[in-house]
Amino acid sequence: MTAIDHLFKNNRVWAEKIKQEDPTFFKSLSEQQNPEYLWIGCSDSRVPANELLGMQPGEVFVHRNIANQVIHTDLNCLSVIQYAVEILHVKHIIVCGHYGCGGVQASLDTESYGLIDNWLRHIEDVYRFHQEKLDAINNDKEKVNVLCELNVIEQVANVSNTTILRNAWKNKQDIKVHGFVYNLHDGILKNLDVSVPN
Q: Rounded to whole angstroms, how far apart are CA atoms 196 and 198?
């Protein structure tokens, strides 16, 4: 028995449970992908997109990275957005951060973490844009959480400013970009009310 055998056992139990609930589920799932939502979230294992939205496999197209960044030189993220918008014709793009994000917290440290420092530099820019507001916060946990929100707002703007979204809107495609933050302590999503277009 290997250290990962339990994963295959869990998978078989899960698949059998799904088939008992809906015998046609996997056949239907395999024949189409038609999600209305693209989720751009953090890689944090505690923030599972489908589950926290109460949705099934096939209902949410997902891209995840450290601290839910949308960086204009990240071809991986841009390719996901382009596929979601131009091929899948999603109706909503959700950028979702989470309170207590380790990536956001690390961006506030003076420590060096190696390669990830280059990635976190983008969050440091968000801090710089809002430095006066953030420096006025004395509680470290609150500061991280406010920066988590500001980071999501910045990423919503970054998605909205891609040529992909600009072209979609120019072509009258019905698509909106939203910013949410997930609370690990109670499982509740907060809508930051920064949807584009309104």
A: 5
